[in-house]
Amino acid sequence: MTNLRYRELGDTNVSFLAYLGLGMLTLSAVLPFTSSVNSKKIPIGFLGDSFSFQTISIFFSLYLVAIGQAGHKPCVQAFGADQFDEQDPQESKAKSSFFNWWYMGMCLGPLLVISVLNYIQDNVGWGLGFGIPFIIMTIALVIFLIGIPTYRHIVTGEERNASVRIGRVFVAAARNWHIKQSIIDVEEESQGFCPTHGSEQFRFLNKALVSSSSDDKGKACCKTDVEETKAVLRLFPIWVTSIVYAIVFSQSATFFTKQGLTMDRSLGPNFSVPPASLQSFISLSVVLFIPIYDRIIVPVARTSTGKPAGITMLQRIGTGMFISTISMVIAAIVERKRLETALKHGLIDLPNATVPMSVWWLVPQYVLFGVSDVFTMVGLQEFFYDQVPTELRSVGLSLYLSVFGTGSLLSSLMVSVIDKATGSNGKESWFSSNLNRGHLDYFYCLLAGLSIIEIALFVLFAKSYLYNKKTAI
Fold this sequence. Notes:
- This protein has three domains: about 5-150, no CATH class; about 160-230, no CATH class; about 235-470, MFS general substrate transporter like domains (Growth Hormone, Chain: A).
- It contains 16 helices and four strands.
- It has helices spanning about 10-30, 30-40, 55-80, 90-125, 125-145, 160-175, 180-190, 225-235, 235-240, 245-250, 255-260, 280-305, 315-345, 365-385, 395-420, 440-465, and strands spanning about 40-45, 50, 265, 355-360.
- The strands form two sheets. A two-stranded antiparallel ribbon has the order 1-2. Strands 3-4 form a two-stranded parallel sheet.
- The chain starts with 11 loop residues before the first helix and ends in a 9-residue tail after the last helix.
């Protein structure tokens, strides 16, 4: 059985910090010394204030969890996928399914938190609320450590890591910017470059094939290093065109919730649905749709395309982008209906009044968000894992995560700019605190329009994209 790489196994030292932080959170909630020391204030001079021992311990624990997650999230997924042999047809199919079931597990966890742990924390106590995840983490860590002898590893013989090799290609190409094309053509021919394998893309990097001096600094790069660098560079158009999807994705936790807060949330005579809990429909749709996708859609598509995953990774990503665009159109229609209902019942200037329109009108846009995640979110994970050099797979998954971090920041920037532009000269902003006088429907239409442009650009880049592994084609 072919051994595969897992250099990130050492990052369990970092992810262990999350386990330690969760344990400290549990202790801060249950140990009696925290309540006795809680009344004593510890001065924090440079902050100009003082904090209780319990407050400091909670913040310290939360930072430990955050640092642990930073080491855990990109590495553990790469580790799991590395356990499949890409050269084996059956394991290649299983690896594609791994990303599906991985994301299902990631959504099932928050779904249980919303439905179970939130209730325990509010009605039983924070000690048990933190203690249950800590116990589960303990069991998971023990199982992980027991399995270490069975994991696949590889001992790489590379003298330089992938980042150094890629950086050296850029430096060499920049150093040789003045070299004539005829010299490069000779070097390409001697190293056996084939246009069908992508040598025509980013051809300026082929300048790195030529030695510029007799010392090591001017030493020529090999064909493999140049092609590896091109493979990484080809990722960035896909990364850029995925940002609009991330901007759309961030709305479910913000404006969708704000819409729900104004609508009729009653469920029976004595219960009102918390608007934030509607986000559970995203996780629920993911959990329900992934088995359908993996066990029905993929096998059917596989019979017609012959591809292990049914469709290519870029086709999967583009499909999710299209579904998210539909979600934005539906969100705009529902918001327009909500505004018309508020106007009809004379509630335009009563922002705290409940608009007589059921909150369940919002469910379709949440469900479509979840379905689009199954396509785009999982597709991006697999794409950025599969299309980077072996040693950079955890970095590739970090690149995937950066799409959504950048999207969230740009979403905030868009809201600020639009709020200033539409709220000037005494006019009501699209994001007015009185949502009945705002125009979230305009904003959703804008996002739908940007999504259409995004899809057009994505298709353009996807058509010219050359996969760096034949198995992905």
